[in-house]
TrEMBL record:
Catalytic activity: tRNA(Glu) + L-glutamate + ATP = L-glutamyl-tRNA(Glu) + AMP + diphosphate
Subcellular location: Cytoplasm
Family statement drawn from the similarity comment of this UniProt entry: Belongs to the class-I aminoacyl-tRNA synthetase family. Glutamate--tRNA ligase type 1 subfamily.
Membrane-spanning parts: none
Protein name: Glutamate--tRNA ligase
Amino acid sequence: MNAPVVTRFAPSPTGFLHIGGARTALFNWLYARGRGGKFLLRIEDTDRARSTPEATEAILKGMAWLGLDHDGEIVSQFENAPRHAEVANELLAAGKAFKCFASQDEITAFREAAKAEGRSTLYRSPWRDADPASHPDAPYVIRIKAPLEGTTVIRDQVQGDVTIRNDQLDDMILLRSDGTPVYMLAVVVDDHDMGVTHVVRGDDHLNNAARQMMIYEAMGWDVPVWAHIPLIHGTDGKKLSKRHGALGAQEYQVMGYPAAGMRNYLARLGWSHGDDEFFTDAQAQEWFDLDGIRKSPAQFDLKKLENLCGQHIAQADDAALRREIEAYLEAAGLPALTAPQAEGLERAMYCLKDRAKTFPELLEKAAFVIAERPITPDEKAAKNLDTVSRGILSELTPQLQNASWNKETLEEVLNGFAAAHDTKFGKLAGPLRAALAGRAVTPSVFDMMLVLGRDETLARLTDAAA
């Protein structure tokens, strides 16, 4: 029986959750969730100078917004330092690592001489096979004994087999002279102790895999399945950076993109399932596999993101959409909706969510239901409220007083009223939009009347006529 799948996301808390990191987290989450496995979270906080609690909080918030829930407690790499040191000392005792007493000046001098002579600058410590009896009483680092001959093959699910000559691998430091573990050791020990079966991460870590495999093999541990995914580029083909726009996952929440649309788009960045563009979370979990990941970098395209977000808004459940919009307003530091406004917004969803690509676009269309009396028309709408229009509205209001409040009856009354005044309904629409919403561009007049209800509609028309 196959062991259960365990993936992990291991960000460094030195800033926000970058879009590239968000996609890596998503790929790990999809792979584990689609196989009934576990998705774990580890904070790689060993760089004490740059790691901050604020950055950890920003990463957790970004993941929460994207709906990427993790299993078990969050692991702190820094807190595991004693365990990492224990493994280094175990390798030392087994003769698979050694104490190196070379000073930084000696190593620098060796490299400079090698460079001048055109030799490899890969440092080979003279202490590798030294007799422990000759060890001085001086500070030392612990280095692993790299294989000297043959090759190391990284069997990668995305990149294919990558072969590295062992004479290219140095006797990597495991423990610094102050007893602190290096990142390479910490990652391997944590992944092993957490039971990680699949390491899915950026292809900038591909070369690290060969060096990390030395530790797995020296300890006799199972090497995980590797999957190194290409980085994300901007539409100009260059690595994604600030100049391409927002970079943090949470910035997209503040800009009003729905999380489901963002998940869908990030899943499609560098991975595909046939020609499917739009899909649900359930489909993504069922379909996602490592062999669908492309080798070449993906391009981040805001137009495609918006298009997918529009489709997700249109398909969303109205109550869930209302809750997500309320969370968006809070994240963006905008005024919260009152209970009646939020209820009105949910009632109006059916006529708002088509063709809105972001929450600000949807809220713009929802102005009529969020606004409170008296409605102040904007400049464009005000032009539709001249003396003649006001007279028409005051004549129309009593005719709506006793009408049945459904679309068919309202259409009948308004079209009949227009015909009686020898005009088309289109001529009435401008003043009605101005009266009901204070805007020139709105959902249909009938939809607004139905959402607002009889009393509010008549009150607004009366205000405008006056």
